[in-house]
Amino acid sequence: MSSYVTKKTPGNTAWFTHDRFGMFIHWGLYAMPARHEWVKTRERTPEAKYDLYFKYFNPDLYDAKEWARQAKAAGMKYAVFTTKHHEGFCMFDSQYTDYKCTNTPAGRDLVREFVDAFRAEGIRIGFYYSLIDWHHPDFTIDVNHPRRDDPDAKQQNEGRDMHRYAEYMRNQVRELLTNYGKIDIMWFDFSYSQRHGEGDKAWLGGKGKNDWESEELIALARSIQPEIIIDNRTEIEQDIWTPEQFQPTDWFRHPKTGELVTWEACQTFSGSWGYYRDEYTWKSPEMLLRMLISTVANGGNLIMNVGPTARGYLDSRAEEALKVYADWMKYNSRSIYGCTKAEPEFKTPTDCRLTQSEDGKRLYIHLFAYPFDNMKVEGLAGKIEYAQFLHDGSEVKFTEGKVELLSDDKQEDDETAAFFYLPHVKPNCLVPVIEVFLK
Ligand code: GLC
């Protein structure tokens, strides 16, 4: 059994830390301007202009089954969908607002179709729900709000009532957690209570748990779905830490106590979360795989994001990125599912990442750079029963304690180490993996 113990949390994370890999889906009106999901506040878009996106939102090519098929092929075991992002637009048929997809040319409950299609593929369902809302009339103008630079911003805040807004959120969360069957993850986003404006804008504050009334919100969610996994962005600690757009280089620790925690890196293919037509910072295939492998090697989960287009399909760049995972996971998923950080007794060789099955019986050596001829792994001598390449199940020969080389002057024995003998040419696999069955 793995010797790493994480801090206990209220929800059920057992399936989560087994499944390791999920799909994030950021989809909303912001797919139409197609230049970041924060476009409304970045550009201080006038309401009348943003209303045009509502008026013309028509994802006529949306086929949730096709997305689900691609997620499954990529090896993703859960998916988290933006039911409402910061713009405030609801992708579901809420009875508490008119600002919803069923009132646009889309005319359908887009969350419902997502849930049905992904569930049918055996993928677990998560809902992203933005705590921030740049449309709701009770949400006060703050440091991130699109109207913050309006000359009358202060006056606009008069009469806005965050209590009413918090109640609106509870009503919607109740709808989401009641009307769509079992929901495995609730992903609230996000708190920024330490932030405030500067100079003559110093009055612009941030928002946090008191504004969201997080305690009640969480209690409500748990009362409906007791096992649900909730992230920590309400400013009340729940189940998962969610480092965003960076890769922790070791197991994520609790910022105060230093304990190991359950964590999920959230990452994008290109930088923004919503569809961004003119973004050219797409990650390379190698990098995509390294991110997944390195995350699991550090005991975490990875959720990779797609930002579907306004017509409702995944653009070719996103499809290609998903295909990178599909091609690799088809043969190598055994080093990801049910795996975690390897025991400290095994020393990671240069340019490699190790994962180990939770039961401790299998060790996986991921070769980020392909080594020549033989590879030494310290801490493994005497512990191996059998070794093979994972992608094709072909035997990888090894010796323990002693390296077999042709010339004496290259002798590099090490009684703690195992030496693996590799083919001179890298197998046709972006990141080859050696699967080691331990005694
Ligand atoms: C954020 C951003 C956002 C994105 C999210 C995903 O904090 O505001 O647009 O939805 O994180 O992690």
Distance between the termini: 13 Å
Task: State the domain count.
Answer: 2
The pLDDT mean sits at 96
Q: Please give the radius of gyration in angstroms.
A: 24 Å
N-to-C series of helices and strands: HEHHHEHEHHEHHEEHEHEEEEEEEE
Structural description of this entry:
There is one protein chain. The strands form 3 sheets. Strands 5-4-3-2-1-7-6 form a 7-stranded parallel β-sheet. The protein is built from 11 helices and 15 strands. The protein folds into 2 domains: 324 residues, TIM Barrel (Alpha-Beta Barrel); 97 residues, Immunoglobulin-like. With 439 residues, it is an alpha/beta fold. The relative contact order is 0.13. The chain binds alpha-D-glucopyranose.
List the helices and strands and how they pair.
Elements: H1 14-19, E1 21-25, H2 39-42, H3 47-56, H4 64-73, E2 78-84, H5 110-120, E3 124-130, H6 153-157, H7 162-179, E4 185-189, H8 209-212, H9 214-224, E5 229-230, E6 264-268, H10 285-297, E7 301-306, H11 316-332, E8 339-341, E9 352-357, E10 362-367, E11 374-378, E12 384-389, E13 397-400, E14 417-421, E15 433-438
Parallel strand pairs: 1-2, 1-7, 2-3, 3-4, 4-5, 6-7
Antiparallel strand pairs: 8-9, 9-10, 10-15, 11-14, 12-15, 13-14
Helix pairs in contact: 4-5, 4-11, 7-9
The protein binds alpha-D-glucopyranose (GLC).
Give short descriptive properties of this protein.
11 helices; TIM Barrel; Immunoglobulin-like; binds alpha-D-glucopyranose; seven-stranded parallel β-sheet; 439 residues; alpha/beta
Compact overview of the structure:
This protein has 439 residues and is of the alpha/beta class. 25% of the residues lie in helices and 18% in strands.
